[in-house]
Structure formats: structure tokens, C-alpha cells
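Extended Data, panel c. Modelled sequence:
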Amino acid sequence: LSNLLLVLGMAICASGLLRKTQQFNAHGAAANMTCQAVASISVCLPTMFRGVVNSTDYQVLMISRVCSIFLMAVYGLFLFFQLKTHSDLFTDDNQEDEQEGQLAPSISVVLLFLCTMTVAVCSGALVDSIEDVSTVYGLPQAFIGVILLPIVGNAAEHATAVTCAYKGMMDLALGVAVGLDTDCALRGALRGNVRLDL
């Protein structure tokens, strides 16, 4: 939620600096927000189930896993919908086509793999340092996990959304902001044996 509010708010403010009104594709935004609503429900359902009398941790874990699988399926179908079957709904009519140089697919895959490995190592180091930072600076771990990590961990997406909105590409900015939040919910769902609840 902090990602959605912060990134989307900053993108809208950046767009408002240059123009009084901004146009965006309502169908694309509605599809993104629907996916976000499903992700929110998937996170809330195990929490509500935990409030049921006589529910066990094992039952909550099973509900969490079912929600995770459902969320992965919905996200996969959404990507198929966005990229294949209804890609015309997600094109930006106001944006000019810019042809830039493209990398070969093999080089792209290698770079993607290297970047993923680098991010995995850095993320591990970041998570391992939370307890020390909390102790040294007197910050609650909840504040670090809910406020600081989403901002620092998704800085590239924040910059992309704000830059796109500033340049008038609101469809892309909305897609990045809402997609970032949906992606965070999906990554939370994939954490293995951890209960997916609030």
C-alpha cells in the first residue's frame, strides 16, 4: 500500500507540474486496479480466516498457499491478457513511436540473469542488516520493513514512474505504479511456508 500511494502520488504530482490535465487509458488502468484488488483480497483472506474460532495455524497456512496459487494464476492470466490477447487496450495513443537500438535476445537473457543474481545478493545483505540498523539507530523493525524497505527496494520503479509521468506518459506511469504493488503482493505470496496474512 505504501508503494502504491507513494509512487502513484509522486507520479501524479510530477505530471501536474507541467500540465493541468492529463489523459490516460481508462481500460488499462481499470485492468491494473482489478488485479490489485484481487491481490489485496488474497492477502486479507488468511487474516480474516485466522479470526474464525478454532482455526489452526496449519489451516491458515493452507488458505495462504491456496491464495498464493490463485494469485499467481491471476497474475499470469493478466500478463497474457495485457501482452497477447488485448494488447491494443494498453497502447498509448498519445505517445510517438521511438525506435531505439535493441539487444539480441541471448544478451538480454544473460543481462537479466546477472541483474537478478546481483539483486538477490544485495537483497539478502539488506535483509540481514535490518536487525543491526534497528538496534544502532533505535528504529522499530516494523518502520524499517513497512516504510524504508519499500522505498529503497523499489527506487528504480519509483524513478521510472515519476519520470514517465513527468514526460506525459501516464499509462506507463500507472502501469509501473500499480504493477509494482501487484508484484509486491505476488512476491509476498511466494515466500514459501510463511503465512500470507496481515
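Residues 192-198 have pLDDT under 50 and may be disordered. This feature is highlighted in the accompanying rendering.
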